[in-house]
Amino acid sequence: MLTDEDVYIVKYNIAVMDTDSLIQKAAEHIVKSKYAVALTGAGISTESGIRDFRGPDGLWTKNPDAERIAYETYHVFERDPAEYWKIRLTTPYLLGDIDKALPNPGHYALSELEQMGIIKSVLTQNIDSLHVKAGSGRVLEYHGSVMKLRCMRCGARFNRDDYDLASLLERDNLPPLCTSCNSPLKSDVVHFNEPIPQDVAASSINEAQKCDLMLICGTSAVVYPFASLPRMARYREYDSGMAAFFDMPSGERNQDVTIIEVNAEPTPLTSSKISDFLIQGKTAEILPKIVEVVKSLVSQV
């Protein structure tokens, strides 16, 4: 009779190693890398008290109606930017008071790797700007940030605090307008049915295709097109169209890139052999341990 470990080995075709050995292995690859990037999802922010969307306790899991409404948000902005802002400023935010959330050891670990010159950029699904708060310098916020506003016409971004949104609401003077082209601004957060901003999308693809190591932290790897980035790293000529939805990569497998997952559970990247190995656990616990081993290895050089 197969044990759970046997099933794991058969399903994911990877050897089961103890966590400390995997951390050592990851650190060795990281130290040898020339251009490493990190890719992060909701799992790294849940440990800062921010709920995810699709996990067992996720917002959409617990409240399907909220997800249905979220699918209409971008269309509301397109029809009536003022109404979009009235709803946004008078409705409690689903993720709570993100402004009060603080980075956790996982965020600080990635920042430290960047300060060491190892991590070149952080590509994140998260809209909470915790990587920025933790000190990471080059953060590509794929789905935008709650801390910014963005012009849909010229692409200019502004700090949210540059606008007194409460006063604009009180004076019935919404929406906020772009100081560059006078067009209505929306939250920088990318809503359902809204295209990923071209500048962030292009930069993210470039980072995925030039890296020789990708450290994937806390993402379920099921939200596209973000989930196609590891596949672009693995298959440089990867077609991010319909093939992405069926895990059917095209092009030649790139053996010169190492892809490491740190996640609570296996993902489609694990089962489809996109990643080289998975370190199963909490990012806030695993990433600082990786950094400590990296520092030890670097000190020996």
Fold and architecture overview:
The chain is an alpha/beta fold and 301 residues long. The chain folds into 2 domains: 199 residues, 3-Layer(aba) Sandwich (Rossmann fold), CATH 3.40.50.1220; 83 residues, SIR2/SIRT2 'Small Domain', CATH 3.30.1600. The chain has 14 helices and 9 strands. A 6-stranded parallel beta sheet has the order 3-2-1-7-8-9, with helices on both faces. A 3-stranded antiparallel beta sheet has the order 5-4-6. A hairpin with a 5-residue loop joins β4 and β5. The chain is elongated. 38% of the residues are buried.
Helix and strand run: HHEHHHHHHEHEEEHEHEHEHEH
What proportion strand? 5-15%
- Per CATH, the class of the largest domain reads Alpha Beta
Gross geometry:
elongated
Largest sheet entry: 6 strands, parallel
Low-confidence stretches: 1-13, 240-248
The CATH level-2 architecture of the largest domain is identified as 3-Layer(aba) Sandwich
Strand arrangement, major sheet: 3-2-1-7-8-9
- Give the overall pLDDT as a whole number: 89
- What would the CATH topology of the largest domain be? Rossmann fold
This entry's quaternary arrangement is: single chain
* Distance between the ends: 47 Å
Q: How large is the radius of gyration?
A: 20 Å
Which class do the helix and strand fractions yield? alpha/beta
Number of domains: 2
Number of helices: 14
User: For this structure, what is the CATH homologous superfamily of the largest domain?
Assistant: TPP-binding domain
**What is the tally of beta strands?**
9
Helix content: 25-40%
